[in-house]
Amino acid sequence: MNEADFIAALTRLSLHPGARGFEDDCAVLEFGGETLILTHDAMAEGTHFRADADIADVAWKLVASNLSDLAAKGAQPVGVLLGYCLGSDDQSFLQGLSQALEAFDTPLLGGDTIKADGQRVFGLTAIGKASANPVPSRGGAKVGDGIYVTGTLGRAMLGYEGDEDHLEAFNRPSPRLSEGQALAPHVSAMMDISDGLLLDAYRLAKASKVTLAIDSEAVPVAQPGRRDDALRWGDDYELLFTLPEDTNPPIDATRIGQVEPLGFAPLLLDDNPILNAQGLGYEHS
Amino acid sequence: MNEADFIAALTRLSLHPGARGFEDDCAVLEFGGETLILTHDAMAEGTHFRADADIADVAWKLVASNLSDLAAKGAQPVGVLLGYCLGSDDQSFLQGLSQALEAFDTPLLGGDTIKADGQRVFGLTAIGKASANPVPSRGGAKVGDGIYVTGTLGRAMLGYEGDEDHLEAFNRPSPRLSEGQALAPHVSAMMDISDGLLLDAYRLAKASKVTLAIDSEAVPVAQPGRRDDALRWGDDYELLFTLPEDTNPPIDATRIGQVEPLGFAPLLLDDNPILNAQGLGYEHS
């Protein structure tokens, strides 16, 4: 099975209502009198990082990618649980982990450390507390809303390619936690764009049953000559969100388009219909 | 680093108070006026299961081992998040997962599905809600308390060795969820014995700063000729707990000893002092 088939099969099991049918990045559930936000991301050597990667950076990104999912819900991190496979560079992993937890003010709650041969797999579960109710989802964009993105795209791509100015964006990304919390009470829909702007915009459009019309020239990119690539590359950990027409974003963000009634394509890029998600961004196979 | 060194290093990072210094199997934290119980266990091919294992059984045990940690806290399962590496037997994994979730009335909350080459690693995070306050820990055993264990030990061992009568105990263990909830308001200390009775009793004694005096003949075992092995083999997923002298267990359980003042060994087995944990049970290296 591929990832999509497996996930489709999982949705046929006994799902918690808070799982949101797996159509969101996090589970959202009432617990006591608060709302709990839960997410789990895994990273495997060979698939998500190279065998020669600096494992301190891998540890940082494991934390950042999970916290980015919490950011997209406007959640405040409570703590993380780590699933760790021992290796030859544990000290370095600990250093990156420690730096990320300090940087994002997130404590360790627990986890499991195991011995495993061969390529390594790391898992992290992040626990958050919702700051706004209802908790933003991918599914709430309304016709007429403005479409916005935080930050400048393509920085992680340039860093991956070795551009010294953008190495940090690739190796040590920062989830938009405070921005997510500031946005949560206002947005009609929100998600992070860790798989690439266009692919994630496509998903938001599908979940909201609307068409997103995006003006590619409006998207802030780190290198204008690489605009097309920047729209498709992932790992930027910025936030994509929609706001009612009369609402201005409470944080720095750029308007990149407008929500239209569902047409025959979920996405219009400079008026060109995009009918399927293939080639739009980073798809796990 | 080995597992113990890595965990010791983790405790020097920023820990949530609910992490209990990693001296317990679960994190325990107040959330929204209730008490949240969190645990994460990982299983790797080659370390925790053989490459030729029935992956449906592996899925079941992944769920059971995590829920057993919740059981030891007297918690009611809320749901689980799965970290899954795709393979050639995904359908079979789904079947075992589905059966376990149904059997233990626990829904799926989310997770991550990834592609990974080589040996596979699965992770599961279980979320529970405490049923009693304070939540039982390993650290509360008091001098004079009786020591008890649920069930019959050595069944998983015999099943592993191919004994038809005990195959299910090895392949499809049941966490003691209802027993844990019934016991939680009464016990002074509790934990599961998935790493073996003696090793886990040693840990409970260390955490409680007492000596546990255990009468090996009193321990119910599936095959009396294999008593010594049964006390050291893990995977039984029974509960070990201590109760004040005048309290009877509210469920079926066997008294196997008594809590004594901390002597020079944490464990007395038939009056023989056991000074260190080596060789007592299943130790992850």
Automatic annotation (TrEMBL), chains A, B:
Residues 142-242 form the PurM-like C-terminal domain. The keyword rRNA processing does not apply. Mg(2+) 2 binds at D41, D69. Substrate binds at H48, D235, Y282. Its EC number is 2.7.4.16. Catalyzes the ATP-dependent phosphorylation of thiamine-monophosphate (TMP) to form thiamine-pyrophosphate (TPP), the active form of vitamin B1. Residues 24-129 form the PurM-like N-terminal domain. It catalyses: thiamine phosphate + ATP = thiamine diphosphate + ADP. This is Thiamine-monophosphate kinase. Keywords: ATP-binding, Kinase, Magnesium, Metal-binding, Nucleotide-binding, Thiamine biosynthesis, Transferase.
